[in-house]
Design a protein that fits this description.
Length: about 300
């Protein structure tokens, strides 16, 4: 029997979770999360994890499956997700992958390229650059070395910036020329669905969601996580802005507006990333039945 992986992607705040749950209910299957922040059990409000009620009895994997103190990589996700799918396919020939972390989606569908191992000396130099000049120093250096990669990656994540710079410096070549996406053979067929809506409406939803997070206790959650602020998992939108507030680098009102702005910027980068994939068929978040029909037609081909 052929095996299928239905992939639901799109920008933050567009409604991927609710959409995927409806798909999972229809096909009586489970959901794998491709969200690199919902992975961490300590991050709840700021990552908009689905509640038990919102999951509606649908089994989810890779939510709350790691700790912020763990070193969890894209390669870990690729391996773990493949093992998870093997077990799911024993009972059902269809599974759903939902999330906005493009690297996770690419890793599971296509595999990761072989890149050079970590270079301790270069890594130390880049960490020093980060300490002295902040994320702006890393961004400026990568933009100089590889503007193509800078424009398509999550350039607000210091650890990813450092790793990308490290590869450039070790190889002497732009990362974008090395990361060619040589596809590995998979034993399942992918059916890719993208969700999007009018930009103005999406931005309104993002702003409203941030306000909702604040009401639900995001500030208190961030305060509890503040002692661990140096961890990679916490170098992310929704937490780093509040950490700056706690350190009196900005006021609370400004921090909240920055969370909204950075979330909108992230959504724009996600759309840029996913739009380069011509296999994705795009829908409005309300077009659930149309997406179900699309999946059924693809499975009959």
């Amino acid at each position: 029997m052929n095996k299928y992986l239905v992939i639901v992607v799109g920008p933050t705040g567009v409604g991927k979770t609710a959409f995927s749950i409806l798909l999972a209910q229809h096909f009586n299957t489970a959901i794998l999360s491709a969200d690199s922040r919902q992975l961490y059990k300590e991050l709840n409000i700021g990552t908009a994890k689905p509640t038990k009620e919102e999951k509606k009895g649908v089994e989810h994997f890779f939510i709350d499956s790691a700790s912020i103190t763990d070193s969890y990589t894209t390669a870990n996700f690729e391996n773990d997700a493949l093992l998870c799918l093997d077990k799911l396919y024993e009972k059902n020939n269809i599974a759903i992958l939902c999330g906005g972390t493009g690297l996770y989606v690419d890793a599971l569908c296509n595999g990761l390229d072989e890149l050079p191992e970590k270079d301790e000396k270069i890594r130390e130099e880049l960490n020093l650059l980060f300490e002295e000049k902040g994320i702006e120093g890393l961004q400026e250096k990568l933009k100089h070395l590889d503007e193509v990669q800078f424009n398509k990656m999550d350039n607000q994540n210091p650890q990813r910036l450092i790793r990308t710079l490290e590869v450039c410096l070790v190889t002497g070549k732009p990362y974008s020329e090395l990361h060619l996406g040589n596809k590995k053979q998979r034993d399942f067929t992918t059916i890719k669905i993208g969700l999007n809506m009018e930009r103005e409406l999406l931005y309104e939803r993002i702003n409203s969601r941030v306000d909702d997070m604040i009401e639900k206790g995001l500030i208190e959650e961030a305060k509890a996580l503040y002692p661990n602020r140096v961890l990679n998992a916490l170098q992310t939108v929704g937490y780093s802005e509040l950490f700056d507030c706690f350190e009196n680098k900005t006021d609370l009102s400004t921090a909240i507006e920055k969370i909204k702005q950075h979330s909108r910027n992230y959504a724009k980068r996600q759309l840029t990333w996913f739009r380069r994939d011509t296999e994705i068929k795009w829908f409005e978040p309300t077009d659930v039945q149309a997406a179900i029909d699309c999946v059924k037609n693809a499975m009959q081909e």
